[in-house]
Write a structure and sequence with these properties.
Layout lengths: L10 H8 L3 H10 L6 E2 L5 E2 L2 H16 L4 H10 L1 H31 L8
Antiparallel strand pairs: 1-2
């Protein structure tokens, strides 16, 4: 995920950053009490980097773990620390996997005649 360097993001930006349709973000906002973007006088949503991290955890529970929305809401409500720790561990493992793939690609480029161990 790209570095979040702004204080606020519009819904279109969040949709692009996370790869989640805007309609899904709007719906999740109605279903999850922890997703509460700020709004201006024209009712335009503004998400903070913290809001985006919360949405990433909801995405993990709903899309990656396959939980129903009410189960994900309950999990967040009753075991927030556990969800955060599990999510963080999985993100670190994904980063390690990406690094290993890049390392393998670099080795394949340096030594094209040596078959890769798969």
């Amino acid at each position: 995920m790209r570095e979040l360097d702004k204080k606020f993001y519009k819904i279109g930006d969040v949709s692009e950053i996370l790869g989640i349709p805007e309609s899904t973000l709007r719906y999740w906002e109605t279903q999850f009490t922890i997703i509460k973007p700020k709004r201006n006088k024209k009712n335009i949503r503004y998400y903070t980097p913290n809001d985006i991290e919360i949405i990433r955890r909801v995405y993990y529970l709903v899309k990656e773990k396959g939980m129903k929305l009410d189960a994900a809401q309950a999990q967040i409500r009753h075991n927030r620390d556990g969800v955060d720790k599990r999510f963080d561990a999985i993100e670190k493992l994904k980063d390690i996997k990406d690094q290993l793939i890049k390392f393998q690609e670099a080795l394949d480029e340096l030594y094209p005649d040596v078959p890769a161990a798969k």
